[in-house]
Amino acid sequence: MSQIVLELNHLSCGYDSHPIVQDLSLHLRAGDIGCLLGPSGCGKTTTLRSIAGFEPVTAGEIRLQGEVMSSPGQRVPPEQRRIGMVFQDYALFPHLTVAENIAFGISKHPERRRIVSELLELVNLDRLGKRYPHELSGGQQQRVALARALAPEPALLLLDEPFSNLDGDLRRRLSAEVRDILKTRGISALLVTHDQNEAFAVCDQVGVLRDGRLQQWDTPFNLYHEPATPFVASFIGQGYFIRGQLLTPDTVQTELGVLRGDRAYQLPPGSAVDVLLRPDDIVGQASSPLTATITGKVFLGATTLYRLQLPTGSTVETLFPSHDDHPLGEVLGISVAADHLVIFPAQGSVNVSAQLPLEQMLEEGDSD
């Protein structure tokens, strides 16, 4: 089993005696890339700054390679933690060349030139070592910041919203490149972001935070298919909750018919439940007696995401191949193909939207 590089044990921290992060526990294995994911103000950056040593902790502890870095009344200085940091604004020195920026943290290292040369090649900037930051693109500046953080060979690399200043296409390409670089070097890293696509593309383990509390620390696959809380289910991916009633430990009566899951749910029969349905759980079936009306659509390239209104007024979504085009207002036959059901005790209103991508990308004619 891989060595544990980072441990947060019942960590609480904040600013000016104001608690922000509470009772947070997780661990990161050597060579893994982790992520703290959540909406603005949930405590992601506060946690990262506490790990780096910039902020004290009020309870719990932070361990790096088994050694306590922070606990109440104890804090190892940031420069002694063997932690590299890539900031949101890159924080490059404008008066230093690319090579000099990378060498900044290893100025007394006897093999400084070799290390800088290797890192320039690693980040595909081997011909740009003599340039200055203002002569580089945003993506190139990000690579310089990454190389500079890697130069001292840190035990852990922290990245604070590292791609937020880049446009969408470059962001996607660079996030993949950064993952490859970190994996090539075997670097353990912890990333902070509010973008789940970025988190899933880069990271092995993702922690979803809400109001300073960790909801779930898991693989991207499990966060999507096995969400531990309704918040994780709603924050990760797309989908809608529909109300149902548990008939037996593995079957639920819903407005879409009786749905059978692949497990026994730990609720008494007769319980009101909310069933999460993802777009890939709803499939078109022309012969089905169950129908829904298309009220919105978003073209995604290979697929089209349709918002469907059921006869009861509830909403679900489905994905069709993009060449299978349907107009707004068309009535489709549908069925549910979801043996793996995600179910929670009923909360709030009957039809709670897990995410509303169509609210953000409405086409003209959408009825909502």
Explain what this protein looks like in three dimensions.
This protein is globular. It is built from nine helices and 21 strands. It has 368 residues and is α+β, with helices and mostly antiparallel strands. The N and C termini lie far apart (51 Å). The chain folds into two domains: 4-82 and 154-225, P-loop containing nucleotide triphosphate hydrolases (Rossmann fold, 3-Layer(aba) Sandwich); 238-360, Nucleic acid-binding proteins (OB fold (Dihydrolipoamide Acetyltransferase, E2P), Beta Barrel). It has helices at residues 44-52, 98-103, 112-122, 138-150, 168-185, 196-202, 220-225, 230-235, 357-360; strands spanning 4-15, 18-29, 33-37, 57-64, 67-71, 74-75, 83-86, 156-160, 189-193, 205-210, 213-218, 240-248, 251-254, 257-260, 272-277, 282-284, 291-299, 303-309, 315-321, 331-336, 342-345. It is 22% helix and 35% strand. A six-stranded mixed β-sheet has the order 7-8-9-3-10-11, with helices on both faces. Strands 2-1-4-5-6 form a five-stranded antiparallel β-sheet, covered by helices on one side. It has a five-stranded antiparallel β-sheet with strand order 14-13-12-15-21.
